[in-house]
């Protein structure tokens, strides 16, 4: 999977670029549909104000949130995607710095570990996984997140 990373203030550091790659590799190991070499994902590290605006415009929720994901392929399209061919945009992910930093502090984890969790969470959403409509799906998605984080050497966040 190719990642297009946009790093805005107040985020900083080259380690976020490596973190995003490591998280996408781990997600691809637990959700093999993400391992298709044709896939491309855009990740925006931004602030609460930008994520709030995106959430209001696209999700009709007038508040910031930690991560947003915007899939461009339906799950069946992703599962049917051949490995040969032109690049395919899987979707976009946006992380809000202030919310992520606050949540990391509340959980007693590093911002990097929390961001890795949210990147994996966003990638699983792009792959068609869900945790909102059904408890079984939520449990399955949580298990995938825990497994991907374990690959990265990050403890179970739940």
From TrEMBL:
Q: What does this protein do?
A: Single strand-specific metallo-endoribonuclease involved in late-stage 70S ribosome quality control and in maturation of the 3' terminus of the 16S rRNA.
- Cofactor binding remark: Binds 1 zinc ion.
Q: Where does Zn(2+) bind?
A: 121, 125, 131
Q: What are its E.C. numbers? A: 3.1.-.-
Protein name per Swiss-Prot or TrEMBL: Endoribonuclease YbeY
Locations listed in the record: Cytoplasm
Alphabetically ordered keywords of this record: Cytoplasm, Endonuclease, Hydrolase, Metal-binding, Nuclease, Ribosome biogenesis, rRNA processing, Zinc
Q: What is its main location?
A: cytoplasm
Q: Which Pfam families match?
A: YbeY (PF02130)
Spell out the family assignment given in the record's similarity comment.
Belongs to the endoribonuclease YbeY family.
GO molecular function terms listed in the Swiss-Prot or TrEMBL record? metalloendopeptidase activity; RNA endonuclease activity; zinc ion binding
First-level EC class = hydrolase
Entry GO terms, CC: cytoplasm
Gene Ontology terms describing biological process: rRNA processing
Q: Which PROSITE patterns does its entry note?
A: UPF0054
Q: Which cofactor does it need?
A: Zn(2+)
NCBIfam families named in the record = rRNA maturation RNase YbeY (TIGR00043)
